[in-house]
């Protein structure tokens, strides 16, 4: 039986798009360096949801996921989760239970990715602009370009000033951004402080910078914060070595 040209064309097309997805897929390895379970959450800005939007990661374990070319989105870590009827997480909670259908509730440290951005480079950064709950790091594996390590070296929950602390049973579980805590233009870089010239580091952003030196520490902090790499895979670590929790 002769195969119709139409069917043949479709098969060829599938073959090509399948091949293209494989050749340019980026591998994300999520690793839990904490001594407690972390429930990674992820939210896609462009492309499919990674890891179903959320899953449990036992201490010392890792999981791998592929993302297609052009993918963009966020990763964060949730702690103290219970997915019963009243279920939620103590930090980084999202809508949707185990599998996030929305972003994590601040204060939450974020990893942001854009694959195949301008000049086909991948862009990534660690951002405590929405506050901090866990140490995070991104390491490029292979790839060409500057491909800098982006990550935290200290646990900001230990150094968080009282006015920014979020407490649970007397322990600091996360640290609010100064913008969220005080809602002032100078911290949020709004109003009179909306331009890169008038949006400056503060004593609070300096604390975030000390804990996560390569991360965004205030809204206009773009000089050292966005990393680029090409053709790389990425390891994302919760509680990287050096940050104590
Ligand atoms: C930071 O971003 C602003 C606006 O997004 C831009 O005008 C400025 O040139 C950037 N600075 C650096 C060092 O990239
Ligand atoms: C995405 O970027 C990678 C290099 O980082 C490249 O190999 C791949 O061809 C690009 N894919 C598309 C669809 O542009």
TrEMBL record:
InterPro entries to which the protein is assigned, alphabetical: Osmotin/thaumatin-like_sf, Thaumatin
Annotated coiled-coil segments of the chain: none
Q: Does the keyword Iron-sulfur apply?
A: no
Query: In this UniProt entry, which cysteines form S-S bonds?
Result: 34-239, 81-89, 94-100, 147-229, 152-212, 160-175, 179-188, 189-199
Keyword Cell membrane part of the UniProt annotation: no
The superkingdom listed in its UniProt entry is Eukaryota
Which Pfam families does the UniProt record give? Thaumatin
TM spans (from-to): 7-30
Record keywords? Disulfide bond, Membrane, Transmembrane, Transmembrane helix
Known PROSITE patterns for this protein?
THAUMATIN_2
**Entry's PANTHER family?**
OS03G0233200 PROTEIN
The similarity comment for this entry is: Belongs to the thaumatin family.
| Stated name of the protein | Pathoproteinsis-related protein 5
The opening ranks of the lineage are: Eukaryota, Viridiplantae, Streptophyta, Embryophyta, Tracheophyta
């Amino acid at each position: 039986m002769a195969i119709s040209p139409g069917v043949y064309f479709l098969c060829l097309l599938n073959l090509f798009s399948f091949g293209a997805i494989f050749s340019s897929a980026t591998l994300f390895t999520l690793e839990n360096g904490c001594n407690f379970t972390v429930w990674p959450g992820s939210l896609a800005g462009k492309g499919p949801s990674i890891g179903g939007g959320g899953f449990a990661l036992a201490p010392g374990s890792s999981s791998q996921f592929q993302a297609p070319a052009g993918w963009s989105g966020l990763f964060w870590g949730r702690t103290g989760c219970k997915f019963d009827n009243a279920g939620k997480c103590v930090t980084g909670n999202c809508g949707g239970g185990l599998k996030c259908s929305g972003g994590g509730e601040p204060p939450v440290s974020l990893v942001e990715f854009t694959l195949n951005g301008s000049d086909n480079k991948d862009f990534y950064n660690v951002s405590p602009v929405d506050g901090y709950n866990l140490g995070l790091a991104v390491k490029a594996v292979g790839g060409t370009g500057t491909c800098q390590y982006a990550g935290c070296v200290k646990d900001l929950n230990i150094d968080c000033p009282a006015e920014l602390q979020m407490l649970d049973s007397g322990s600091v579980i996360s640290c609010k951004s100064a913008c969220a805590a005080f809602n002032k233009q100078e911290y949020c870089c709004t109003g009179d402080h909306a331009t890169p010239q008038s949006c400056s580091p503060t004593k609070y952003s300096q604390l975030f910078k000390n804990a996560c030196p390569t991360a965004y520490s205030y809204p206009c902090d773009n000089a050292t914060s966005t990393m680029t790499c090409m053709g790389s895979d990425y390891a994302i670590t919760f509680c990287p070595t050096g940050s104590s929790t």
